[in-house]
Please model this.
Amino acid sequence: MIAVTAYIVAVSLFFLSFPGVDFWASGVFYNEVSGFWAQNEPFLRDVRHLGPFLVKVIAIACVGVLVIKLLAPGRPPLMPLRQPVFLLTTLILGPGVIVNAILKDNWGRPRPRYVEEFGGDLPYQPVWKITDHCDSNCSFVSGEASAAMWLTSIAFLVPVTWRKASLLFLVPLCLVLSANRVAFGGHFFSDTLISWGITLLLILAVYHLLYQRVPPIVSDRKLDEWFTVNGRRLHRRLNRLILRSRIIVRGVTRKFSEH
Model:
């Protein structure tokens, strides 16, 4: 966590000192005739949709594991419940709250395609500077780069012998998905690099609380007990609701039959 914090500080200071690197990185994918030409490539557009699709699939699977435990409280969970809790917590707090709700909606940094250097009419803004040049869903920092980095959180949960293999797949995927946003003129290079650091720092913090802290903030056994107790409580309430509904239906049916 200290190393990642130092990385965020170093990257931020670098781009504050050398903003021209942002122009150079975006300029690789820009020309005055077609603008950011990569966004017109069908294959690259398909690649862009891959990241959100994978995030949705994993999130739905995690929610499904928790819901199934609630609906079948007497059975063991499909996986240790800290795993879906870890993935959902980091997804909600990282790409969801910190990146999209706080930074992208409040820092006001225009996207590359809207700045004067790339055919737009807005001035370039440095990293971490709060401006009013963009109202919401702005450039700083990259939400899709954050989601791409979040995919690497899977490597924290697989068996140790599988971690290198999983990272050999997840890290290049993260690089490709993030570079795609720079190529499309959707984000500056600095947006991507800082987004990676913020997301990874959040992942490490949650992992520490759930797995490394002694004792952990919550254990698999405690989660299993909580979902079992509340699942049975939910079953009792549903059974009472069904019983009341049947009584109401019978009463209404009886009144209609009498008339």
